[in-house]
Amino acid sequence: MASGKPKALPHLNASMRPHVSRPSLVRSSSPKQEPDKRNGLDGDSIEESLAAAAAATGAGKRVRWNLPYDTTTQSGKGAHSKSKLSPKCSFITPSSTKEMQFDPDTPKEVQVAHELRLAVHRGGGSTDPAQNYTLKAKLSPLQLPYSRIQRILKECELYERNQTTFIVPMDYNVREVALVCKARTQNLAELKQRLAPMLTRHKARFYNRNLFTETGLIEAMVPRKTRLNFSDFNQTVQTDALWCKATAGTITDYENGSVVFKCPSANVADVAAKLKQCGYNIQHTEIGHCPKEPLVTLSPRHHKRYVEFVKELKLDGDIFKVYDNVCMEQ
After folding, report:
1. Three-point CA angle 60, 63, 69, nearest 5°
2. CATH class of 166-211+293-324
């Protein structure tokens, strides 16, 4: 065997440029998707962006989205442009949670998107029609394609991630009535400053008397074929409430078979599941506030003024729910 230093091998071109396989098209065996279900987000969808962000930040970490662009430039009067739109990906839904006046040449889709944006915000921030009555009422008469509705709701969901739900306690007419308002806003101090003149005018103030307890509320309906007379219906509701571990069950509309069940806030999902087994159709679930003490009865004159106060309070776009201790049956 020859001895000596090994001869230096010449550099090969392949060692400097690794082989890259040539891309090829693969035919999918999955059934064709309906044309209506295809949209402009198939290639670069929000779901893919969320998945990529979650993978980049690691498992178990939550990502707070700050939208890099806005579509208020597409809107009409009262709109303001404060950010640049991406040429490839822009939202069709205005971010404003206030009523906007559009120009006649504004696309109909943008106007509908704004209506859905208000419904999502004023219904509690949920994009699920089963949990948002306001959104469900808006979606029923719409004739937009399914794909467009889904894109608008995704945009609303991203907008709502910057909103926070606050519990705002109030006192009306010098400790006569207690209220608890739920509001979704980015700035609670600004909301209180906006409501202050109206509260002063109605002799109300921000004050917590601790007269409410957090309670799970489940609105359900009984199928018509199982409808009973009122006394038997009421007895059935109380028996079902006891079996489903609800604290109370009340008939709100006998003709339509509407019932409201109350339960601890942590047991809403379990109680709703058991009510479904009993044949109830669950319409809505929420975490509400119920008074601890008996309800307050107002005189007809004071009751009329109080109703006007609540209506004016709900005109604010950030207030989406009001609970009180007033007996509404006069």
Report:
1. 160
2. alpha beta
Measured CA to CA, the distance from residue 181 to residue 316 in angstroms comes to 11
Q: 């009535």: which residue's tokens?
A: 177
Question: Measured between alpha carbons, how far is 117 from 137 in angstroms, rounded to an integer?
Answer: 13
Domain range list for the chain: 72-160, 166-211+293-324, 214-291
DSSP, collapsed to helix, strand or coil, labels residue 77 as strand
Asked whether the beta carbons of 206 and 146 are under 8 A apart, the reply is no
Model's pTM, two decimal places?
0.66
- SS3 for 127-193 is CCCCCCHHHHHHHCCCCCCHHHHHHHHHHHHHHHCCCEEEEEEEEECCCCEEEEEEEEECCHHHHHH
Closest CA relative to residue 101, chosen from 70, 78, 71: 78
Q: Could you give the CA distance from residue 177 to residue 172 in angstroms, rounded to a whole number?
A: 5
Tens-place pLDDT, residues 150-188: 999 999 999 999 899 999 999 998 889 999 999 999 999
Residue 126 CA to residue 323 CA, distance in Å, equals: 19
Contacts of 135 (CB under 8 A, 6+ apart): 116, 119, 120, 123, 126, 127, 128, 129
